[in-house]
Amino acid sequence: MALTLFGGGKPDHPLADIKHVRKLVSGLPPNDSVKSLSDVTTWLDSINGAEGLRLERRYEVIDVLDQAATNHARKLGDVYQATQRLQKFEENKLWTAASEFWKLLGDAYGRCIEQLWSDAGAAATVKKELPAIVARALRALTMQMKWTLLSYSPVDVRVWGEVGRHYFFAENKEIATAPVEIYPGEQSTVQQEFLKAMMLGVSANHGLNPVQQEIAARTAAHFAKVFTLQLQPGPGCSFCFDLSLREPPVHVTQEGFKPSSTARCFGAGGAIAALNALIPEIRQHDRVPAGFNLGGNFDSDLVLSALQHLALHWSDQPPARRSERRRIAMQLTVVHGFQALLRAVELLADDTSLDFEHAAATESWVIENVSGGGFGAIIPPVMGDWIKVGTLLGLQADATQSWGAGIIRRIVRDESRQRRVGIQQLAKAVIPVQLAPAGSVSQPGATRTDDSALLLSTTPDKHGEISLLVRSGSGMRDHALEMNVRGKRYHLLPRSLIESGDDYEWATFKVTQQVG
User: Fold this and answer.
1) In angstroms, what CA-CA distances link 312 with 216, 322, 368?
2) Phi and psi torsions of 498, nearest 5°
3) CA dist list (Å): 128 to 3, 56, 123, 409, 414
4) 3-class DSSP assignment, residue 58
5) pLDDT tens for residues 357-374?
6) Which of 12, 44, 369, 417: disulfide with 104, CB 3.0–4.6 Å?
7) Which letter does DSSP use for residue 321 in this model?
8) Half-sphere exposure of residue 171, counting CA atoms within 13 Å on the CB side?
């Protein structure tokens, strides 16, 4: 509803009355965060459309709505991390509620900044709050980015444009580095909020699952004070963002950098050394140290994998593609999960079996490129709600009869919402094997506890080791084993766990001898 003025009197808009706003937020349902956030989003949309509202009153209203929504936004984020236990409809409802809230909140603070650009006198009415307004605007834009990246979609160019414009305003007003209590009990600066957005933008979130993305965002917040911002690239400062462009930040070198009045170079600075010290400490003690504040409890393996990812992508030399992509067009039959891959391999070995349920569980994907390490594939739009980074896949090309194995390493959505995935190929052909504790097979009268596994290595490597996929929680990678493969038995000693997923463990074993 548009706001009108009557003879210079009180604005004819219900949200111009701060008492009315406080009454509204007091009635938000405490145990329904989706409803509460949706209500606040509606009120933000209304106040954003109000014309003629004084800046100090606009900010006062937005502040009340923002702080009323804080706990609900946090709860929604926590619930979203458990989306594997939610129906797709419920997941979409959470994502939509959070995304719309952060966009409208960002628009609200952005509207305040627009008033400050157009009315120099308005700044005097909110002089003390000025750094907080800009810092909050950047925080809301960063949260928009975060939720967009959770859906593996590209960040809207509008967001990059607003980040640049807001930070340029802060520099222009000489408030970028002024300490500010951005929210009660939370100290920050506009520059730190800007750098959080920048470092999130270069974190390659398409290669992280949702929980790892949350860890990455909280890691960026933890290290914001030691991130670097300067006018030229240098050690620990090898990314560039142009405040005047609507484009994401890019990696730069000192030789290739072209200075301009709106170019800002940034980087992890002291965070790289801190990460490199933190990673072995977590690995050694199997826990996150108390001094590393992630704002919540996370599995130490997930924290390790996220920090290792950040250490690579925040470095002065981000990882490059190991081999060149080749364009190709072919069909690929796909199953997902350890049990489905094991069943597919077993069915292939038993060509007399009919399993219509297995056939219905397969999907057909289009491979669009191939490299030495795997594939790039297009996912059918109505399939694949189970898809996430780290999922184990069974892969069967049309031209082959064997089943291979791969893991989803990245997910992206293009501008038309088409999903594309990058798949690391573990093996072109996997072999079903049986595992049992050492001695339980060869010794008469011993109790056998066979378990199926998938062999990835047709021959041991130079260290005499093989790779196996075993069922998650089977305990097979912790003990000496006997492996039966095509009627031959081998002694195995566990070596290392390469990776674990929801239903599988990828581990190496040393072949010590053939049995019998």
Assistant:
1) 12, 14, 27
2) -80, -45
3) 27, 11, 9, 46, 42
4) helix
5) 555 578 888 888 888 788
6) 44
7) P
8) 15
